[in-house]
Amino acid sequence: MRNTMRDGRSGRRLKSTLIVAGILFVGAVIGVGAVKGYHRVRGSSAAQSGAIAQASAGYGLSAPTSATVVGRDLFVANQAGNSVSVVNALTGAHVATVSGSSFDLDQPTSITNVGPDVFVANGAGDSVTEFGAADRAPVRIIAGPQFQFSDPIALTVDANELFVLSATGAVTGVSPATGGLLGVATGPQYGFRAPSSLVVSGSNLFVTNSAGNSVSVIDASTLGLIKLLEGSQYRFSTPTAAVIHGGDLWVTNRTSDSVTQVSVSTGNVIRVIVDHTNLPTPGPITAGDGYVFTLSPPGVSPMVSQIDPSKGKVNWMMCNGNGPYLLANPQAVAVAGSNLWVVNKDSNSLTEMDTDTGDLIRTIS
Question: 30-364 maps to which CATH number?
């Protein structure tokens, strides 16, 4: 599918940035469901016709779930493979596969980086693995009852702290430098109900509660509760993931085909973007190269949608009807410069797209 109501951009920017997963705060609601989306095969475009399909032999992709970018490399966590595949984010070449007993990877669910090191949450191991991004050598395994890890599913970081979200309802603060415990936020006062993602902005940590239709706001320094964002003004409807972009918090609402944009500084809702055609059951979300991107994993036609954050509208959405994208239950999306990488769990594949046009660059499967 593609929505062609979009603005062209005259220049391309190459940046080594990644933003994966995020969250948000009261006011105007904008419905854009009238914007038409339709299937369009882009075989005539240079980018589409020149798309590359690469076999994943040696890549080790096995139910990939999450990704992060460090420099030129894309690190992909493989839940079924108990491994991390390292791919050159510019060329798509296989760099390495991280696995083995020294890393103790156990059904990894989330991955991020702090400076030169990569951190992986192990859903079945109730632990976090740390290794060097450059040499891919193990640094430490962070585990123990004091951390209160229980099915860790998401990671986020600020300058001084790694935050680990457990599916059972706890946020653990860890020192990236030492691996030591900094604190744990848990208990009924936090309003955790099927927490699904977390993101940090300044002194605030935000956790989406998919079963509570709410967002918990936590002090990033003390891990004390600041407030619980809930109520009709937020329009949260099974909030699934969130990201920070442009000083705002963006939250995907899976059961209302919408994204909520909230000002972090004022707590006011800027808009709620509702689009039943172009944002069906949105889940994972990221931002980069001037855009916000969402994934719609369920159903027979998974898709990637690009949102113009300044106008609050969907510029385009791409699905497998537009070409051999190999989208299948996409679980994560990462931005590396002007390239968008989508992690497909059910097809054991990666899809690389142009961030501006959505054109297919290559698939690795």
Answer: 2.130.10.10
